[in-house]
Amino acid sequence: MNGLQGYKGLALEILSKANVKIGDNIRILRDGDVFEGILMPRIELGDPNHIVIKLSNGYNIGVKVTAQTKIEKVESKLTPKESMIEFKVEEKENLPTVFILGTGGTIASKVEYRTGAVYPSLSTEDLYRAVPELSSLAKIKTKVLFSIFSENLTPKHWSEIAKSIAKIIDEEKVDGVVVAHGTDTMGYTAAALSFAFQNLPVPIVLVGSQRSSDRPSSDAALNLIGAVRTAAYAPFAEVVVAMHEWVADESIVLHRGTKVRKCHTSRRDAFQSVNAQPLARIVEDKIIMLTDEYRRRNNKEKIILKPDFNEKVALIKFYPGLNPEIIDWFVEKKFLGIVFEGTGLGHVGRNCFDSIKKAVDSGLVVAMTSQCIWGSVRMTVYDTGRDLLSLGVIPLEDMLPETALVKMMWAFGQTLTPEKVKQIMLTNLAGEFSGRIPL
Amino acid sequence: MNGLQGYKGLALEILSKANVKIGDNIRILRDGDVFEGILMPRIELGDPNHIVIKLSNGYNIGVKVTAQTKIEKVESKLTPKESMIEFKVEEKENLPTVFILGTGGTIASKVEYRTGAVYPSLSTEDLYRAVPELSSLAKIKTKVLFSIFSENLTPKHWSEIAKSIAKIIDEEKVDGVVVAHGTDTMGYTAAALSFAFQNLPVPIVLVGSQRSSDRPSSDAALNLIGAVRTAAYAPFAEVVVAMHEWVADESIVLHRGTKVRKCHTSRRDAFQSVNAQPLARIVEDKIIMLTDEYRRRNNKEKIILKPDFNEKVALIKFYPGLNPEIIDWFVEKKFLGIVFEGTGLGHVGRNCFDSIKKAVDSGLVVAMTSQCIWGSVRMTVYDTGRDLLSLGVIPLEDMLPETALVKMMWAFGQTLTPEKVKQIMLTNLAGEFSGRIPL
Fold first, then answer.
1. Total structural domains in chain A?
2. Which residues in chain A are closer than 8 Å to B190, comparing Cβ atoms?
3. Which of A56, A237, B133, B261 could crosslink A200 through cysteines, CB 3.0-4.6 Å?
């Protein structure tokens, strides 16, 4: 460790020449521009031509350097930590109140700039310091519910999140709730919360970050500002996901919780509305509605909480060569339902028919979605689809496979009667079917 | 049945008024335009403002009608069937030879215009009649290998297709092979053929149709012309999928067999290259290469056939609440390998770790892809990924989950030694990893 952790190439060369190390206050002079701040480590392999500094307002920025760029060490009587503490929070009166609930993920973490370690941090002060814009948008309250990589969240955690949110809405006077969440399974949780609440009075906004906040390319600040703006001011009371609309750090898009899917491993615009328009976009300080079909915000509504999920539901992606005994296994294990990700318009191979019949005869609810992701299941077009329908398989139109799984887990959390679950699956509860008005 | 099967709305009204029925020769007069042909039935629910006629050249067209459109019955001494037989095939000399192998699907079927029934049809005469352009492009030979909805194809069928193609290339003097295939699992078969051949001398082009050829919106003709043109003239010798580039009936795009996926249930441009540029586009009669990295066509090459696949490989899509015992079940059932569709950068919940460890300890090859579909697995960024790597899970970068499954089935068809399979999985054999030159 030479005190310039993570730097390489030109940036390392220039920093070494200036004899500075991470944590130092430095000044970067480039083509007449001057940048001043604390030199930050690079956590991941990045562009070797960028130097990252933390500005006095708490922001990190990446400065692209050239061979002509000069670096100076700035003497400061304050330690870096103290200089950050100077930041003053000014809370305005009469702002809406937004509650930020932390569940984990990059968005709710802070990078210790000396070690590069990432730890959960969601105090109001930390947030105001990291993203000063928040203090002029809303009065923020925060709570860390848990701090879990989202791939480790289970339906039990969805219940806990739902109960916490209902409690917050019931007990605190809030104008909206933001849920900071890891992006890996944020789509699943968004669907879960969409079904867990009825009569929502205010918006619930899930937000994540595809790049950690120590990176110059981080999307955390804009996403968080967008989520808080939505929670505070959006005209709707639905569960949505707020993320970048495009790779540029310019606009946010609000996806309906039942129609959203993570469609890229790393891009900032990884989340996409599938088979649906997003609900709204945010450009600068404006929330632009993209549809008039939404549930209106109404603080007088009394939230109805239905937080139970039953994990005895399986998602099976069909593929050539799939062993149909896997279907029998779920029946033997007393599962209650199966959602298939079939091919095309909603098909599986004929070699699965016997096992599907056994499953249906044993009382399991079997439903069909498409692994194409886009488009709609239409099981009346070909023999395969018609035969599956006659076996009792339920066609779920354009519902996302992931949403269908979550919905069936939720349905079996409400009732164990297969006929009722079928009815629930075919009813548009939270916009999960496009082109049909939700109840 | 009133003799106007499938028609409704304005079209039905106008046709009824003219007292014509399906199978009649009719003349449509619309705004000075005149269309003449045999009135065809509408098989599926379509736009109520279109009338479909079969022109004397064998083509079907849809004519949009207005309230002012007039219909006349045309007396004809020929029965509709005879009038179609008039079509003459003119085979040109010195054209390249293309072999079309039928496996099933909409593209290889013909609609009986009186009954609406769909039956397999792939005689050269039928093809020339349906798509007259083909006769000026290539000398066509055809064979129906089987006629199966593609959701019923299994790895055993992939082997049969591969063996048939190798035989055709060995025994017939062909400049390329077209495989007519149902679209449901065409992506899987394209990947399978990509691995089954080495030293390909000529292109192998899979082609399908999203709309049956009796529909005015059918994509069958343009796709087939594009596929034959590719087989006859493309400069590369790779396995590709030829389908519509966009919804308009204008251009064809050629996707590399290992990078293509059906991403919409019904759109004509359902097939997309994922994490890769397509190899080429076809606009009018031009094949426009989009990359210079491809295997060159070379008739002197001697094809190497490796047609074996082992079905003891499973694809598991991870989701919150997944019961890890399913992993144990595959181990008990003596499966050889598992491909995970993990979340985000390549994660599964920590509750699966014990079962994954057991699987690896039992000698299974366990590999990781992402259910995001787009982007690349990167398992060194977070603890979950690093822990999975240390359990022995193989990261498959940007390989499609479906391609990874097919490739592992193929790898275990070549060797039963896990270490060799791992090595195969990490080697770029047919462009399955982007940004790496295939061997």
1. 3
2. none
3. A237
